[in-house]
Amino acid sequence: MVHSDALVDTEAVELIDPGKGKWVHYALTAWENTWPLLCLFVLWEIVARSGIIHEALFPTVTEVAQTIVRIFNEGILMRDILSSLTRVLLGGFIACLIGTVFGLIMGTNRFAEKIIVPPLNFFLSIPGIATFPIVILFLGITETTIIVTLGFEAGLTVLVNTWMGVKSVPPNMLYAGRVLGARGWPFFRRVLFPAALPSIITGYRLGFSRAWRILVGGELLVSIGTGLGYRIFLAQDFLQIDVMYAGVLLIGVFGFLLERVALRSFEVYTVQRWGMIREL
Question: pTM of the full predicted structure?
Answer without folding.
Answer: 0.78
